[in-house]
Design goal:
Blueprint: H1 11-22, H2 29-32, H3 39-57, E1 64-68, H4 74-81, E2 85-90, H5 93-105, E3 110-114, E4 126-132, H6 141-153, E5 155-166, H7 185-194, E6 197-204, H8 210-218, H9 223-244, E7 254-261, H10 262-266
Parallel strand pairs: 1-2, 1-4, 2-3, 4-5
Antiparallel strand pairs: 5-7, 6-7
Helix pairs in contact: 3-9, 8-9
Length: 267
């Protein structure tokens, strides 16, 4: 499968095209998890992300939440169902439409906006800001760091920024592309500190190496072979990631990183 390069498409156009191709299918996971990958591959991603994020998404029924890169609303729906006051933003208008449809189907109330995390200016601060695999798609490191500063500016004094991003413990470019950058955990530590935030919690998501070992070769395989290989990699990884991720954060390709304003983190 050939992905459009960053030079060919702006970020907004890339996500709009991706949304229109995949967001209307099933739960839209191929639009918001891994681009067009087989069913089990994206189901495994969703399951492991939900398990890794669970400790920070419960017990907040009266909180306000900002879902950055809300996509089809899979996190917004869960937060709103817990009674949270949810605002979701996304670059893609079609993603926003699907998110609105999903919340209306469930009779939940959320506010969704087409907006860019880099230039976000909302007249509101949030107790929880959730950003799942958003920063890894901002390929320019300076822009990604500025996005973190912007998000920090939208936190309440005791709020939490919860990031789930590709953040390997050692820098690697094996899976980088025109629309993806895996920045090291140390990079996130530094960028968060520069934004006045301090990491107060880390949890692994996917420590098994099978999927990341496959990805550099996946695009060059014949489609039937690629589909089979990705499905097998996901089937082997899922039970191991599910049980071991919380114990192996350093080995994890993706990490949940929870940060608070430095003053709150010290209190």
């Amino acid at each position: 499968m050939t992905l459009p390069s960053a030079e060919q498409l702006t970020a907004s156009n890339y996500w709009e095209g991706r949304a229109r191709r995949f967001a209307g299918r099933a739960r839209g996971l191929a639009a918001v998890c891994s681009y067009g990958m087989p069913w089990l591959y994206n189901e495994a991603i969703d399951l492991c992300q939900r398990r890794a994020l669970a400790p920070w998404l419960i017990g907040r029924s009266s909180a306000s939440a900002l879902d950055v890169g809300c996509g089809v609303g899979r996190w917004s729906v869960r937060l709103a169902a817990r009674g949270m006051d949810v605002t979701g933003i996304d670059l893609s208008a079609f993603m926003v439409e699907r998110a609105i449809e999903r919340t209306e189907e469930r009779k939940l109330s959320c506010v969704f906006l087409k907006a860019d995390a880099n230039s976000l200016r909302l007249d509101k601060r949030f107790d929880l800001i959730l950003s799942v695999t958003v920063l890894q798609h901002i390929v320019d490191p300076d822009q990604a760091a500025r996005a973190i500063v912007t998000l920090a500016d939208h936190l309440t004094p005791n709020g939490e920024l919860v990031l789930l991003e590709a953040a390997p413990s050692s820098a690697t470019r094996c899976c980088d592309s025109g629309i993806f950058r895996a920045r090291s955990f140390a990079w996130y530590q530094q960028a968060l500190a520069q934004a006045g935030l301090r990491i107060c919690g880390v949890r692994g998501v996917d420590p098994m190496p099978f999927k990341t070992a496959l990805l550099p070769y996946y695009r060059h395989m014949p489609t039937p072979v690629a589909t089979f290989a990705a499905t097998v990699a996901a089937a082997i990884s899922l039970p191991l990631d599910w049980w071991l991720a919380q114990y192996l954060p350093r080995r994890s390709w993706h990490k949940v990183m929870v940060a608070r304003p430095s003053s709150a983190a010290r209190s």
